[in-house]
Amino acid sequence: MASILKLDDRHDPVANIQQWQLRQSDVQSEPVGHSEIANLCQSLLDLFPEISIALTRNNEVPKPIQIDLDRSRSAFFLWSDGYGIAQGQLDDTFVKSTRLRRSVTKILSHIGEVLTERLIPLSNVWSEKLQDLCLRVRSALENASRLLDDGVSKDSDDESSSGASTFASSGDHLNEVTEDLRTDMRCLGGLGALLKNPVFDPQDQDVSTELSVFVWSPSQSYADKIQSRFPQAAPNLIHHLGNANYQRYLRCQAIREGLLDEKQPELVTTTISESHIAQTLASGSKFHDSGIGTSIAPTISYAETMMSYRHEGRSVRIPPLSQEGKAGKPFDCVACGRKVTIRNSSLWKKHIFGDLLPYICLDIECSHSKTTFASREQWISHLALDHGMAPKWEGIQCFLCTEETGQGKIAVIQHLARHLEEISLSALPTGIDSDTASETSSDTGDEGS
After folding, report:
1. Where is the Oxidoreductase acuF-like C2H2 type zinc-finger domain (predicted)?
2. Between 20 and 30 A from 80 (CA), which of 273, 315, 342, 447?
3. Cβ(309)–Cβ(225) under 8 Å?
């Protein structure tokens, strides 16, 4: 091997990897005694500052991007240092708590993938030292992936990691990277209660018994995403929302395949003017509310909604309005499969949420907890009347993020609706391009009507 290395060019990637492997053979015993989580965390702590230094030397990376990344780096250092993660101080806790171990591993793995597979290639910073650090992170990711026992494989992430090159401009995608890292830091911060008061696995439960009684459900994949996004939410609420999302997926799939008893319109036409929104269906066509009718008031303005968890290496967003739609031509809706004519992004988002019907009650003790409300207004009325929130609309602790919603009708509705809307987006068919355009509409609409 030594002779091969001498013959290869000093910048040959294969040669560099082989040299690094040779150097690592002398220090293989260093991580002994630390868990996979501690090793992964330490490798990220080593890589993050090196990236920050490299970015300061690259004039092509905008200053706001550098500042955002440095804030995420500082937040990550404070989080790790505060709990002694890299030092292995919580190794025993991770062994005893499957839920905590999986939650931390998922978030750290995502941070590692963002740094090595997206940030470094996009920012065009590279050096031999960065290459060595990236290899360490990838090795730690391989080891940490064994801790995930929920069927999530790295193959799906690896297959989609190459998707970074499909974005139109590196600037837009760097903004995506910084936003994803900020989300990861918020998720890590949200684990504070679990880290301080972990829920340990039952000591008398035999592994073979657990495997024999465990029945996998298709809704579990949706529940796992919701748990990753809202780690402090109650397990029964996560299960409830995961099942609701799976039913939402089946309903949209049935509509697309024409399996529901409804007469599908040949064409749905949506136009917009400054004074009003007119929506018409093909003559004689009737169907259940898909968000095109009057169930969603035209006074509501939908801002671009993004899932903070990730799907196949990218953030889950509202699918972009197609080029055909922007040109005023009919196109197939990715949610309901109908042929629609929609020219405006705000109306397109209304249509998507009208198909997904994201509004359900978050109080699982409520008699209407399994009800999918046909419109935002029905859901608001339920909160106002059945839960007695009107007329004061006092702030409450959110069932999902556990933060305060704020006082007043608009604050409460806006807070809860955003969570429900972003959760519903994962019920869309996979393989749809994300809305990475800069089009966003203000989220200042009257949330209660």
Report:
1. 328-356
2. 315
3. yes
The full set of domain ranges for the chain reads 31-196, 219-449
Average pLDDT over residues 127-149: 86
Does 300 have pLDDT greater than 50? no
* Other beta carbons within 10 Å of 22: 12
Do 269 and 341 touch, CB atoms closer than 8 A?
A: yes
| Spatial separation of the C-alpha atoms in residues 165 and 143, rounded to whole Å | 27
pLDDT score for 23: 52
Burial 353-375 (b: 16+ CB within 10 A, else e): bbbbbbbbbbeeeeeeeeebbbb
For position 79, what pLDDT does the model report? 94
Between strands 268-272 and 331-332, the pairing is unpaired
Indicate the residue type of 320.
P
Helices 63-83 and 36-56: crossing angle in degrees, nearest 10, is 150
Within 10 angstroms of residue 443's Cβ, the number of other Cβ atoms is 15
Q: Tell whether the model's pLDDT for residue 121 goes beyond 70.
A: yes
Which residues, other chains included, contact 333 with Cβ-Cβ below 8 Å and sequence gap of 6+?
339, 340, 351, 352, 355
DSSP string, 169-212: -HHHHHHHHHHHHHHHHHHHHHTHHHHHS--PPPTT--HHHHHH
Integer Cα distance of 110 and 309 in angstroms: 9
Pairing of strands 314-317, 331-332: unpaired
pLDDT bracket for residue 416 (50, 70, 90): very high
Q: Locate 112 and state its tokens.
A: 């590692």
Q: Could you give the count of Cα atoms lying within 13 Å of 108 in the half-sphere of its Cβ?
A: 33
The Cα 239–Cα 241 span in angstroms is 6
pLDDT number for residue 271: 40
Reading the block at residue 50, the tokens are 């090196």
| Per-residue pLDDT reduced to its tens digit, 315-362 | 457 888 888 888 889 998 888 888 899 988 889 889 989 999 999 999
Residue with tokens 């969570």: 419
Query: What SS3 class is residue 373?
Result: coil
